[in-house]
Design brief:
The chain is of the alpha/beta class. The chain has one domain: 3-Layer(aba) Sandwich (Oxidized Rhodanese, domain 1), CATH 3.40.250.10. It is built from 5 helices and 5 strands; from the N terminus they run E-H-E-H-E-H-E-H-E-H. The N and C termini lie far apart (37 Å).
């Protein structure tokens, strides 16, 4: 059985958290927002790769290479774009999070700033 059901391109924040939290998480939460947004607040353990860099041809950070990816942004639009781009580049399995970091925070999942303190969604 695969990590995500066949044909599923989007997941809820609960599914994203289930697949990406903890030391033995099967997938990587990839945050594609810009630096200011990331610094204000992101999910603990997320890997940062801004969409602007990916569009410009930047490689994925090592922690995200050859791993299933759960892509997140602020609201879900940029993450859809990034997921399509990464799938076209051959990512083994990639989905995006419906509602993005806004939905993540609303659901009560933790958000930390660049210093590990309580963060906010910019």
């Amino acid at each position: 059985m695969s990590l995500f059901p066949a044909g599923e391109g989007r997941v809820t924040v609960d599914e994203a958290a289930r697949h990406t939290r903890g030391a033995d998480a099967p997938a990587v939460l990839l945050d594609v927002r810009e630096q200011r947004e990331w610094d204000a607040g992101h999910a603990p353990g997320a890997v940062y790769a801004p969409l602007s860099g990916l569009v410009a041809g930047a490689a994925l950070p090592e922690a995200a290479q050859a791993r299933p990816l759960v892509v997140i942004c602020r609201s879900g639009q940029r993450s859809q774009q990034a997921a399509e781009l990464l799938a076209a580049r051959g990512a083994p399995r990639v989905v995006d999070v419906m509602g993005g970091m806004r939905a993540w925070a609303t659901a009560g999942y933790p958000v930390v700033d660049g210093h590990g303190n309580s963060g906010s969604i910019a």
